[in-house]
Amino acid sequence: MRDIAGLLNLVINFLSLAIIASVVISWLRAFGMRVSYSHPVVRIIEETADLVLKPIRRAISTAGGGLDFSPFIAILLLQIARTLISKLF
């Protein structure tokens, strides 16, 4: 059982880091840096983050001014899942 909890914790860490990296990449693009969509690392980061972010973005609308709260909500939900997993195992 501990192995399952460890694996789930690893997946949660990986998803959280991918979301944070995706946010940083979007900020870099917003400030005029050229970050290629076709770079393999960027593509993996964004596709991994989108696994979690797309359902949240569909469920909530964008706030005024184009603010996207889906990364915050996703990381919050992942941390709640981590807490529940730690209590179960």
Helical amount among residues, as a percent range?
Answer: over 70%
- Outline: globular
Q: Mind telling me the C-alpha Rg?
A: 15 Å
Strand content: under 5%
Q: Please provide the ordered H/E string of secondary-structure elements.
A: HHH
Number of domains: 1
Number of DSSP E strands: 0
Give the end-to-end Cα distance, rounded to a whole number of Å.
7 Å
**Average pLDDT for all residues:** 91
User: Can you summarize the main beta sheet?
Assistant: none
Number of helices, counting only DSSP H or I runs of 4 residues or more: 3
- Ranges where pLDDT stays below 50 over 5 or more residues in a row are none
Structural class: mainly alpha
Question: Which labels suit this protein?
Answer:
89 residues, mainly alpha, 76% helix, 0% strand, globular
Describe this protein's structure.
The protein has helices at residues 2-30, 40-59, 70-88. The chain is an all-alpha fold. The chain has one domain. α1 packs across α2, α1 (2-30) runs antiparallel to α3 and α2 packs across α3 (70-88). The protein is globular, with a radius of gyration of 15 Å. The mean pLDDT is 91.
Could you provide a short overview of the structure?
The protein has 3 helices and no strands.
Q: Layout of helices and strands, plus pairs?
A:
Blueprint: H1 2-30, H2 40-59, H3 70-88
